[in-house]
């Protein structure tokens, strides 16, 4: 089995385990908490995830792609950047939570955001090791660690939701399981900075990382801003309904796209023939996801009321539409990693920004017509923009199948 196939399968299995356990959480909260409580937790998670996107700053990818003779120097600079960055994000999220408290007068929402911020205190000590493990080809192991943390958090959330039906049940496990990831990653690939090696210059990190950071910010906004808009325009109850539909539908798209992204970038960096590697990855990923998505969308009217209860039957149409967004999302994910591997993350940033602005506008305009109209607009815009942008980005890899692309 080719290395990329093994790595993609590992991350897909990790994501599948995470989504299966997440489904257990969704079932638990659907049966134990009302839509307004779910909406409160969803607002906190959305705000936290937008800030968390700032951790994807391209520093880890600089480690993965660094020449061997610059690796130690790159890692020393990366460690300093990770530490300063994560501490800054902790302060930023606490400040954002305080501002939300002042504006909304809701101390419970501030408390939820504060709990989520604690995760940043554990991250700096393991991020260099995570990047080095991926560089060394330990993608199955990193997938298992990341998936294990998510599964543990989801199982804890489900148990807390049944025993203590409160929005805190959805956020506290994220903090409680952060040490699991840290300890496992440090054991997977031990690393100690070499004091006899001078740190690498920061400028290349900033040049590459600025575009990557922009991409991740707008990606988080794309996935979370619609929830904030729905909450503001339609209230917490509607947000709770959309949150449930989003996790049951588009959750598959985001999970598989993330698996493709994580596995494909190091594969492209190491491949002697990047064009051939990309063609194989695209055919494999689309060939896997398209039948699964079609089946999931078709069966949504059957499994939604069974899993969540009869009261949630009305969101099955929303779930079906959001499921189908997985296909253009995976196509664009392949194109985006191709652009990053060829030092063009600024192109990915421009496309991601355009998509995010379009989807937020769709949510605001379609909100008065209901959640299903929002979901339909989401699917149409995601398909037109992502596939339309992917075609010219992928063209070099398909134009000359026998040629190597540098």
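^ structure tokens above, recovered residues below v
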């Amino acid at each position: 089995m080719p290395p990329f196939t093994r790595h993609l399968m590992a991350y897909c299995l990790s994501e599948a385990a995470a989504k299966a356990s997440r489904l257990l959480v969704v079932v638990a909260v659907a049966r134990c908490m009302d839509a307004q409580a779910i909406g409160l937790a969803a607002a906190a998670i959305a705000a936290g995830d937008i800030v968390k996107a700032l951790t994807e700053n391209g520093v880890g990818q600089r480690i993965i792609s660094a020449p061997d003779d610059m690796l130690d120097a790159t890692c020393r600079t990366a460690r300093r950047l990770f530490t300063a960055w994560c501490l800054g994000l902790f302060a930023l999220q606490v400040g954002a939570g305080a501002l939300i408290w002042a504006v909304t007068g809701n101390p419970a929402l501030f408390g939820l955001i504060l709990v989520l911020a604690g995760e940043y205190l554990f991250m700096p000590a393991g991020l260099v090791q995570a990047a080095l493990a991926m560089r060394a080809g330990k993608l199955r192991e990193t997938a298992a660690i990341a998936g294990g943390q998510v599964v543990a958090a989801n199982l804890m959330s489900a148990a807390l939701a049944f025993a203590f039906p409160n929005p805190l049940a959805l956020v506290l496990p994220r903090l409680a399981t952060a040490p699991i990831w840290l300890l496992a990653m440090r054991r997977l690939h031990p690393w100690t900075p070499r004091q006899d090696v001078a740190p690498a210059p920061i400028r290349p990190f900033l040049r590459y990382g600025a575009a990557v950071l922009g991409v991740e910010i707008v990606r988080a906004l794309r996935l979370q801003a619609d929830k904030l808009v729905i909450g503001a325009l339609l209230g917490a109850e509607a947000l709770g309904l959309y949150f449930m539909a989003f996790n049951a539908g588009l959750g598959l798209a985001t999970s598989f796209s993330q698996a493709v992204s994580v596995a494909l970038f190091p594969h492209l960096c190491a491949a002697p023939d990047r064009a051939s590697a990309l063609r194989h990855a695209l055919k494999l990923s689309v060939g896997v996801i398209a039948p699964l998505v079609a089946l999931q969308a078709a069966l949504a009217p059957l499994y939604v009321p069974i899993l969540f209860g009869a009261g949630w039957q009305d969101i099955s149409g929303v779930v079906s539409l959001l499921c189908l967004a997985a296909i253009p999302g995976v196509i664009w994910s392949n194109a985006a990693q191709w652009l990053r591997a060829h030092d063009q993350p600024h192109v990915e940033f421009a496309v991601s920004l355009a998509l995010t602005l379009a989807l937020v506008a769709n949510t605001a305009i379609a909100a008065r017509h209901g959640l299903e109209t929002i979901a339909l607009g989401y699917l149409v815009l995601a398909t037109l923009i992502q596939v339309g942008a992917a075609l010219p980005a992928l063209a070099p890899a398909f134009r000359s199948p026998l040629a190597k692309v540098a």
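Residues 274-308 form the longest helix (35 residues).
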